[in-house]
């Protein structure tokens, strides 16, 4: 493990997490199709309501733990305080057990009060998630501890294993429970949604088992490093728990605000549309298409931004802790460029191919899902920036600032959603999509000003945004033309879509190289860059004399 750590870098760690996140999201996307066919739109709605509330409770118990543990442990490791790093880990486990158990009990006994009154059929699915909350808290500590050591592989492998088991058990359990309720559409929707959430728990248990095994293998290494600590600085468990609470609390509230908008939006949307005269099943069906078709698709590129942020945080925290501000800014800019290089073309691709993507992936989806993706793909870029910039503020110890920025953004989000639904009730689920975009834009702007204030950071606007956007525009035109031309020729959506995506990748790579002037050495440092360089050299986009730095 020690040797591996020496060779790690921000881009390598981000690449490992990105690949795992993409694979996990793709698995999650693929199993939505059979799950949706089993549950139907109404069952998907119940599943979405339960999942949203579960996410909120998870934020309180465990979502912020990997980030917090990664930050506080990486700071100790940067100062070679190995004993304190070990004690921080043990303190975090105590914290996770207490908070995870408490939140799980709240989920089980008080979940009905937290769901909208007209969506109480989602309660069985929510209660099935209660044990998962407890185990997720412990899993979060283990992942954060390894991330602090700049070892992303255990987290990545556990994420993939978790998602595979989630997919298998979700489909199997949903099918069994729906079959048991034959003849009752209402019962099939309720218990089918419950089966889907049972799979989530099975996935978390699988990931936890793997992380415990990895920890057991590396435990002697951690203990040996702690024994070699010669700093003489040893913190008490009281000090450690106090610092953890002080650090984790604002991070929890920040993450809560950033992610609870889905729950609050669903609650507000369901309540106001009920007042406007929409039926409960119509509300559930529309929200089911939004939460289970549109959201998973835009979440795939957002997973890359989250992965970049997770890899960046221990790097930036360690550099900031020892006063290396310029180097910290370099890491931040590197993360921004890496994320936008991927997220901007993803946004354009999802926009121009929105309807074909929905038709191929989710045949059971209505036109609503395709229109949501067509009009709402910009969320990929705005939210990715808010994720990264929020992570930067938390990395440098300004969790409260990130919290305030997020709180203001959430307030604007909820107000805009309520106004749109009351003024234009026919906007229906589109109001939720629009308000979420507003949320991310406001958060982006506020975080930019905060980052300049505390770090004096200046973004490379041309390299980070303009060049990828210009290349993506050309890519979008090519993708649209290729799809429609081949669809006219073969009348087959899947074949036409695959060809359009391949053409989009090729055009984007060539256009970006020509527009940005990025050299072979620079491009080789991005995820998968070595193979991309080899390919572009073979098709004579590059010659054999390029060199430079990313």
How would you sum up this structure, described in words?
With 550 residues, this protein is mostly helical. Helix content is 85%, strand content 0%. It has helices at residues 2-7, 10-63, 65-78, 82-114, 123-127, 130-148, 153-180, 185-227, 237-275, 280-321, 325-352, 354-361, 367-376, 379-395, 399-423, 430-455, 461-490, 493-516, 520-523, 529-538. The two termini are 27 Å apart.
Could you outline the blueprint of secondary structure elements for this entry?
Blueprint: H1 2-7, H2 10-63, H3 65-78, H4 82-114, H5 123-127, H6 130-148, H7 153-180, H8 185-227, H9 237-275, H10 280-321, H11 325-352, H12 354-361, H13 367-376, H14 379-395, H15 399-423, H16 430-455, H17 461-490, H18 493-516, H19 520-523, H20 529-538
Number of helices: 20
The proportion of residues in beta strands is under 5%
The H/E string reads HHHHHHHHHHHHHHHHHHHH
Average of per-residue pLDDT values: 82
The chain-level structural class is mainly alpha
Largest sheet, if any? none
Distance, first to last CA: 27 Å
- The rounded Rg comes to 23 Å
> Strand tally, please?
0
Principal-axes geometry comes out as: globular
Give the helix level as a range of percent. Answer: over 70%
Unreliable stretches: 2-8, 546-550
Any key phrases for this structure?
550 residues; mainly alpha; 85% helix; globular; disordered N terminus; disordered C terminus
Summarize the structure.
The protein is mainly α. Helix content is 85%, strand content 0%.
């Amino acid at each position: 493990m020690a040797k591996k750590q020496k060779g790690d870098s921000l881009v390598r760690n981000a690449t490992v997490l990105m690949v795992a996140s993409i694979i996990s999201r793709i698995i999650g996307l693929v199993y939505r199709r059979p799950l949706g066919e089993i549950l139907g739109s109404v069952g998907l709605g119940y599943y979405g309501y339960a999942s949203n509330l579960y996410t909120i409770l998870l934020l309180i118990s465990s979502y912020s733990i990997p980030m917090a543990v990664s930050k506080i442990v990486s700071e100790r490791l940067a100062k070679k305080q190995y004993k304190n790093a070990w004690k921080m880990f043990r303190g975090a486990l105590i914290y996770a057990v207490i908070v995870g158990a408490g939140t799980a009990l709240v989920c089980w006994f008080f979940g009905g009060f937290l769901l909208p009154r007209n969506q109480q059929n989602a309660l069985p699915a929510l209660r099935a998630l209660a044990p998962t909350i407890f185990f997720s808290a412990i899993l979060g500590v283990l992942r954060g501890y390894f991330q602090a050591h700049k070892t992303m592989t255990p987290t990545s492998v556990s994420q993939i294993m978790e998602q595979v088991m989630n997919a298998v058990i979700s489909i199997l359990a949903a099918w069994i429970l729906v079959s048991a309720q034959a003849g009752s559409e209402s019962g099939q929707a309720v218990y089918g949604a419950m089966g889907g959430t049972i799979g989530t728990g099975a996935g978390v248990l699988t990931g936890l088992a793997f992380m415990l095994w990895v920890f057991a293998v590396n435990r002697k290494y951690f203990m040996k490093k702690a024994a070699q600590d010669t700093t003489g600085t040893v913190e008490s468990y009281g000090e450690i728990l106090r610092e953890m609470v002080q650090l984790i609390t604002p991070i929890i509230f920040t993450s809560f605000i950033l992610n609870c908008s889905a729950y609050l939006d669903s609650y507000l949307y369901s309540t106001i549309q009920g007042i406007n005269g929409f039926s409960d099943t119509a509300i559930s069906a529309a929200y089911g298409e939004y939460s289970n078709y549109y959201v998973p698709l835009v979440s795939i590129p957002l997973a890359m931004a989250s992965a970049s942020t997770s890899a960046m945080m221990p790097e930036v925290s360690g550099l900031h802790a020892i006063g290396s501000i310029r180097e910290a800014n370099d890491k931040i800019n590197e993360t921004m460029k890496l994320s936008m290089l991927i997220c901007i073309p993803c946004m354009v691709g999802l926009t121009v191919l929105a309807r074909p993507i929905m038709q191929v992936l989710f045949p059971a989806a209505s036109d609503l899902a395709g229109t949501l993706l067509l009009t709402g793909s910009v969320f990929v870029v705005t939210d990715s920036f808010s994720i990264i910039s929020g992570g930067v503020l938390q990395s440098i110890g300004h969790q409260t600032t990130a919290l305030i920025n997020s709180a203001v953004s959430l307030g604007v989000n909820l107000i805009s959603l309520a106004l749109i639904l009351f003024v234009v009730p026919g906007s229906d689920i589109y109001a939720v999509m629009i308000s979420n975009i507003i949320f991310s834009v406001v958060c982006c702007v506020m975080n930019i000003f905060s980052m300049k204030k505390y770090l004096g950071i200046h973004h490379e606007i041309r390299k980070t945004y303009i060049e990828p956007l210009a290349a993506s525009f050309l890519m979008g035109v090519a993708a649209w033309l290729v799809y429609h031309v081949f669809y006219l020729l073969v009348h087959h959506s899947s074949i036409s879509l695959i060809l359009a995506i391949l053409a989009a990748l090729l055009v984007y790579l060539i256009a970006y190289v020509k527009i940005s002037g990025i050299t072979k050495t620079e491009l080789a440092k991005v995820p998968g860059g070595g193979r991309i360089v080899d390919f572009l050299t073979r098709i004579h986009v590059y010659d054999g004399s390029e060199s430079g730095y990313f």
